[in-house]
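Records of this kind hold a single protein each, on a pair of labelled lines. Below, a sample record shows both lines together.
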Amino acid sequence: MSSGFVKTKDGVDIFYKDWGPKSAQPIMFHHGWPLSSDDWDSQMLFFLSHGYRVVAHDRRGHGRSTQVDSGNDIDHYAADASAVAEHLDLRNSVHIGHSTGGGEVARYVAQFGQPQGRVAKAVLVSAIPPIMLKTERYPGGLPISVFDGLRKALADNRAQFFHDLPAGPFYGFNRAGAKVDQGVILNWWRQGMNGGAKAHYDGIKAFSETDQTDDLQAITVPTLVMHGDDDQIVPIAASAEISVKLLKNGTLKVYKGFSHGMLTVNADVINPDLLAFVKG
């Protein structure tokens, strides 16, 4: 097992974990905003136990990577992911992305992974594509006022905001009868506060205003789209249900009553489904 850093072309140090047999098929995980590779602990341990090589990195400005004040956009996110994949020479890989990480996967696969012949499959979990913002092309999206509100909350009191989000809609803990897990809330807060405020602030624009229609249409490898129908962060009708129609080789799996954070709170269901897709 190992970890380390790779330096990007623009001088950013990207932290990564690389566990398991180097001869095994690699699975690379791309985390959501404003978290880090630690958010994949359950999945990495699960796939490691099944003999896979598992890799995850901290996005620029997040976790242990450099807290940069520029390049906090989907283009740089994808290029940084490619820097890790190239550094480790990952081939025949499965790329799994959650939320903003799903957008990162879509652009990485379309612009780097497929052209370089490195990708076997992709998974978009509770992912942001094609675009979260309401536009003329996608009128079912969310109004800009929603994202302006997120920016204000972050700028006013990032620590409180990063508590309220996981304590409420992110994991569905605001739903009647929900079993609230304080450890999960605190771990989300810990990951978020380890990152940089500027990167997180800029990241809101990246995950809400980037139209990834072209990325989705360019992807030809088998792609699994997984989404909870009670996702209060990335509504399924404006994301997964559209994405699967844009993908050439996509499959949609909907989880009734599951939240945006289903990878964590429903790992017992999601992990075996991920494994079945990877092996299939």
